[in-house]
């Protein structure tokens, strides 16, 4: 880089021009992902509304139930291979031997394939037991088995990682939006021709498969354009020696994903058991609206992680800290602003959207969102730990934070009612933030010291 040696006072002492370029790239790519997410969201809402009008609320509920079941199984067995491609791929790209990177891609592709086969089998066979426990009809069980085919074609993990690594966020955004509008067009056609739930099921499954295959196509196209061809001819032997810690990273990220999935619904079950269904419904709505903030921040996470991985591969750990601090301050400040907006207008917003019955959840929503504001200042830290190959630290922090959260939640629910659920969320994120900051600082300082030595 021509400017790599130049120093600037931009954003403070020692912050160099390449870091400023990284910041610009992070927020530019985040905007692209956010725009695609908004387009996909609008198209998805249109598809859902039309389907609901065509087949009715009851059948739409059945379709949503099947989708939730398949998605849960898929996420539980999915190894989040895109994270491995980004983290280990950034290092492999720095090596002169192209087989280093190609062997990694082949490994993660095979991982995607075997988890897709296992996930589809697990979902298709398990639905008979789940359906019997939940009292599903034979038709619902059969339809869920068909829906499980979507998992079989879910090979998008590695191609998504490749596209992120090569900074192709426009392609990722276009695929998501394109698939969503394709679904909308098919649903629109079905709306005027049929009320059969099978038609809408096949549209859901078909578009899901189409999106996966489209991602695979553009992922391989990006590889070919960069000169990485004949991926499957590269031998896999010594893969773990070439990429030390790869299996530990893969297993840690998968287990972390499973823990997060379980924890997202467990608090709802705890509140239901202690306070009853009415309070649970209010909490569910409050949490849903509060989650607007992390959804807005998530595109920034998606784009800063590849940047961190690239900096880590170049051993530019000081730059990682500089970029992380600046991005965290900016996103955290935006989170504070959005929190104040909800403090001022949250009751009105709840009243006109969810209805007056849910206005009582305003105080809980404000507390939960404040917890997400704390997360907004911390979200760069797990991305940094992943980039330097410390995925197990993220898992440890998640487990410790949850072990503090749930006892606190139970105690507070008995003491102050539903308000305690919001306080519990703040406690969770305070513990999470401090532990993440400790491990990130400790590991980065150690790596910086190793460079000096």
In short:
This protein is an all-alpha fold and about 450 residues long. It contains 17 helices and no strands.
Report on this model:
The chain has helices at residues 17-77, 81-93, 98-134, 138-147, 149-152, 157-165, 169-191, 197-225, 239-242, 246-275, 277-290, 292-313, 317-353, 362-378, 380-387, 391-416, 419-452. By secondary structure, it is an all-alpha fold. The protein folds into 2 domains: 17-244, no CATH class; 254-452, no CATH class. The longest helix is centred in the first third of the chain and has 61 residues, at 17-77.
Count of domain modules: 2
Please count the beta strands (DSSP E, at least 2 residues each).
0
Q: What would you call the shape?
A: globular
Main β-sheet description: none
Beta-strand percentage?
under 5%
Poorly predicted sequence stretches spanning 5 or more consecutive residues: 1-17
Topology:
Blueprint (H helix, E strand, L loop, with lengths): L16 H61 L3 H13 L4 H37 L3 H10 L1 H4 L4 H9 L3 H23 L5 H29 L13 H4 L3 H30 L1 H14 L1 H22 L3 H37 L8 H17 L1 H8 L3 H26 L2 H34 L1
Give descriptors for this structure.
17 helices, 453 residues, globular, mainly alpha, disordered N terminus, 2 domains
């Amino acid at each position: 880089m021509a400017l790599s040696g130049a120093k600037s006072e931009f954003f403070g002492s020692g912050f160099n021009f390449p870091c400023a370029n990284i910041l610009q790239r992070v927020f530019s790519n985040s905007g692209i992902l956010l725009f695609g997410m908004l387009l996909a969201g609008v198209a998805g809402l249109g598809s859902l509304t039309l389907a609901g009008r065509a087949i009715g609320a009851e059948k739409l509920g059945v379709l949503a139930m099947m989708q939730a079941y398949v998605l849960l199984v898929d996420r539980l067995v999915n190894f989040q291979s895109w994270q491995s491609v980004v983290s280990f791929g950034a290092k492999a790209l720095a090596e002169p031997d192209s087989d280093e990177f190609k062997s990694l891609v082949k490994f993660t592709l095979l991982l995607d394939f075997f988890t897709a086969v296992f996930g589809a089998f697990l979902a298709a066979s398990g639905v008979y037991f789940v359906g019997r426990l939940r009292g599903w009809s034979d038709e619902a069980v059969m339809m869920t088995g068909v829906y499980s085919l979507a998992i079989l074609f879910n090979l998008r993990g590695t191609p998504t990682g490749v596209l992120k690594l090569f900074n192709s966020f426009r392609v990722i955004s276009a695929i998501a939006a394109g698939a969503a509008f394709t679904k909308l067009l098919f649903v629109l056609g079905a709306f005027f021709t049929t009320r059969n739930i099978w038609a809408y099921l096949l549209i859901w499954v078909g578009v899901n498969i189409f999106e996966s295959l489209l991602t695979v196509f553009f992922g391989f196209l990006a590889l070919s354009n960069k000169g990485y061809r004949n991926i499957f001819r590269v031998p896999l032997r010594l893969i773990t020696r070439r990429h030390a810690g790869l299996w530990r990273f893969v297993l840690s990220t998968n287990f972390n994903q499973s823990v997060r999935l379980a924890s997202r619904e467990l608090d709802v079950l705890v509140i239901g058991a202690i306070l009853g269904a009415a309070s649970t419904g209010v909490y569910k709505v409050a949490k849903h609206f509060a989650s607007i903030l992390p959804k807005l921040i998530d595109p920034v996470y998606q784009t800063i992680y590849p940047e961190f991985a690239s900096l880590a591969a170049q051993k530019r750990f000081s730059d990682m800290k500089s970029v992380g601090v600046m991005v965290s301050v900016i996103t955290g400040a935006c989170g504070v602003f959005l929190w104040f907006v909800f403090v001022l207008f949250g009751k009105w917003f709840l009243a006109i959207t969810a209805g007056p019955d849910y206005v009582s959840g305003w105080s809980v929503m404000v507390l939960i969102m404040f917890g997400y504001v704390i997360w907004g200042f911390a979200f760069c830290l797990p991305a940094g730990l992943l980039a330097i190959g410390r995925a197990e630290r993220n898992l440890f922090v998640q487990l410790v934070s949850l072990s503090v959260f749930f006892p606190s939640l139970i105690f507070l629910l008995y003491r102050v009612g539903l308000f305690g659920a919001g306080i519990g969320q703040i406690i969770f994120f305070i513990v999470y933030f401090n532990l993440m900051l400790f491990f990130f600082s400790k590991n980065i300082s150690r790596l910086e010291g190793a460079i000096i030595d």
